[in-house]
Write a structure and sequence with these properties.
The protein is α/β, with parallel strands linked by helices. The protein has two domains: 182 residues, Leucine Aminopeptidase, subunit E, domain 1; 308 residues, Zn peptidases (Aminopeptidase, 3-Layer(aba) Sandwich), CATH 3.40.630.10. Helices cover 34% and strands 21% of the residues. The protein contains 13 helices and 19 strands. The strands form four sheets. The chain has an eight-stranded mixed beta sheet with strand order 7-8-10-9-13-17-14-15, with helices on both faces. Strands 1-6-5-2-4-3 form a six-stranded mixed beta sheet, covered by helices on one side. Helix 3 links the parallel strand 5 and strand 6. The structure holds ligand BES, manganese (II) ion and zinc ion. The site of ligand BES has 18 residues, from helix 10.
């Protein structure tokens, strides 16, 4: 599928479908874009007849009328206000392209995006969200289907532009949008994999494959469970003990900064390829969803993939912290006291709070890279779902500017976060009788106490943000769950902006 910017005065006989949006108030001005008198007349009559413009998302599909210049025309009602909201815009794009998908003979679409006015959104944004939305619609995971029903793709989507400036902005939006959507797709493809295939080792292989694909720019280190033990990451090490699918930590280094020694942005993803809860076994109801407990690692992989493809002017390190949390005769037990990489001891009160055990060691370990920022992404707590549902990712940070920028990036790409606190006072919930900390708190505020636990392992001087994606990583659909691809868009947008404007986040 191609997105092509089409000059307003180019010969336009090629398209087999025209897409137009109409607001009630500018019915007339809408025709300025067309110089086909007959078409104008017909359209106007139709629209007035149907009185459908008032309702946002109403669609009029006109097809195979010989007198029309275009074989098919899709007219979309945009309501009686001057602007569409972000969400309504997405709704419209979805509706239109689902309709087009049904009429699979449509191959070349012409889109007048300028007709979709959205408050405070420019052409760049409209194209970015268009590409994101279309990629979402056409996403299909059929690796394990014997009969592969392929989505019928539109061949070309032509976007009408009116000047050189729009051409420049549009080209950039297409370039960014396509590469970021590719990262989202790759992340979904990994997340949706079943746990018998997608093991910690599978992640390591995926990581390693980047070295061949992007020679010179990327190098990858792989640590197996023995290495993890040797390094002193005992909390991480213990989580994987119950399984024959041993833990693997993969570290992907991308060197794209102009200055070679620039501090890296470190991304850490929780990659629990299956979480039974361990000895503190989960209920079997919906347990299969725990195959998605590696979505953090998958999204970090997707984000660094798009960063590499976009050649971002940054140094980035992505750490995929992978393990399987299951029951075996070597499984770690409730009551264990473990010395973490940091030296702090942790008493295990619940083996199902395994994510923080993996992450705490990686958070301390990554200090050796002298990070500019640390970002960790994890399906960490059921409590985060209780708090925020599947709308917003829970965000926790020791730096206000960092939270602010993430919030902005989230809104830019409609992959939103919501800030929750990590007040010092919560630390009392994590006290242990015999160790420095416990890994579980019976008190409420489970998403917060998990984040506070992590904060104990982050150097206070390093700007850090923790994203709890337990609610947002998946979508509930007809036959269970699917990966949402979140928060790849958010991460990629943050990285992209950071590469364009070098922001310094100061923790003091
Ligand atoms: N992976 C789960 C969190 C989770 C739950 C993600 C549901 C997605 C959907 C995590 O490892 C976990 O089990 N957390 C426990 C922590 C508790 C034992 C402190 C939880 O949230 O119940
Ligand atoms: Mn768990
Ligand atoms: Zn888990």
């Amino acid at each position: 599928m191609k997105f092509i910017l089409e000059n307003y005065n180019s010969e336009d006989n090629l398209y087999d479908c025209l897409i137009l949006g109409f607001f009630k108030n500018n019915l007339n001005s809408s025709y300025e874009i067309e110089n086909d008198v007959l078409l104008k007349k017909k359209l106007k009559k139709k629209i007035i007849e149907e009185k459908f413009v008032n309702k946002i998302g109403n669609i009029l599909f006109i097809n195979s009328d010989k007198s029309f210049k275009y074989k098919n025309i899709i007219i979309v009602g945009c309501g009686n206000k001057k602007f569409l909201s972000d969400r309504k815009y997405v709704k419209i794009i979805k509706k239109v392209f689902l309709l087009i998908q049904k009429h699979c003979y449509i191959k070349n679409v012409l889109l007048y995006l300028m007709k979709f006015n959205i408050k405070e959104r420019d052409l760049y944004w409209k194209i970015r969200i268009l590409i994101k939305t279309i990629s979402e619609i056409y996403y299909c995971f059929n690796k394990f289907k014997s009969k592969k029903v392929k989505n019928k793709l539109v061949k070309n989507i032509f976007i009408k532009i009116f000047n050189q400036n729009e051409f420049n902005i549009g080209s950039q939006a297409i370039y960014h949008g396509k590469n970021i959507s590719l990262g989202v797709k790759i992340s979904k493809d990994i997340s949706n994999m079943p746990p018998n295939i997608c093991t910690p080792k599978y992640f390591a292989k995926k990581a390693k494959s980047l070295e061949n694909k992007f020679r010179k720019k990327v190098h990858v280190e792989i640590f197996d469970s023995k290495d993890i033990k040797k390094l002193g990451m005992n909390a991480y090490y213990n989580v994987g003990l119950g399984s024959n699918n041993k833990s693997f930590m993969s570290i992907i280094h991308y060197n794209g900064a102009k200055e070679k020694n620039e501090k890296p942005i470190v991304l850490i993803g929780k990659g629990v390829t299956f979480d039974t809860g361990g000895i503190c076994l989960k209920n079997s109801l919906d347990m299969y969803e725990m195959k998605y407990d590696m979505s953090g690692a998958a999204s970090v992989f997707g984000a660094i993939f798009s960063a590499i493809k976009l050649n971002l002017n940054l140094n980035i390190i992505a750490i995929l912290a992978c393990s399987e949390n299951i029951i075996g005769n070597k499984s770690f037990l409730p009551g264990y006291v473990i010395k973490t990489f940091s030296g702090k001891t942790v008493e295990i009160l619940d083996t199902d709070a395994e994510g923080r055990l993996i992450l705490c060691d990686v958070l301390s370990y990554c200090k050796k890279f002298n990070p500019k920022i640390i970002i960790d992404v994890a399906t960490l707590t059921g409590d985060c779902i209780t708090s925020l549902g599947n709308l917003a990712t829970g965000a926790f940070s020791n730096n206000n500017e960092l939270i602010y920028d993430f919030n902005e990036s989230g809104k830019d790409v409609m992959d939103i976060i919501w800030n929750l606190p990590i007040f010092e006072e919560y630390k009392k919930y994590l006290k242990s009788n015999i160790a420095d900390l416990s890994n579980f708190s019976k008190n409420s505020a489970g998403a917060i106490t998990a984040a506070v636990f992590l904060s104990c392992f982050v150097d206070k001087r390093i700007p850090w943000i923790h994203l709890d994606i337990a609610g947002t990583a998946t979508l509930k659909v007809r036959h269970g769950y699917v990966s949402s691809g979140r928060p790849v868009d958010l991460l990629s947008q943050f990285l992209l902006k950071n590469s364009l404007i070098d922001t310094i986040y100061n923790n003091s």
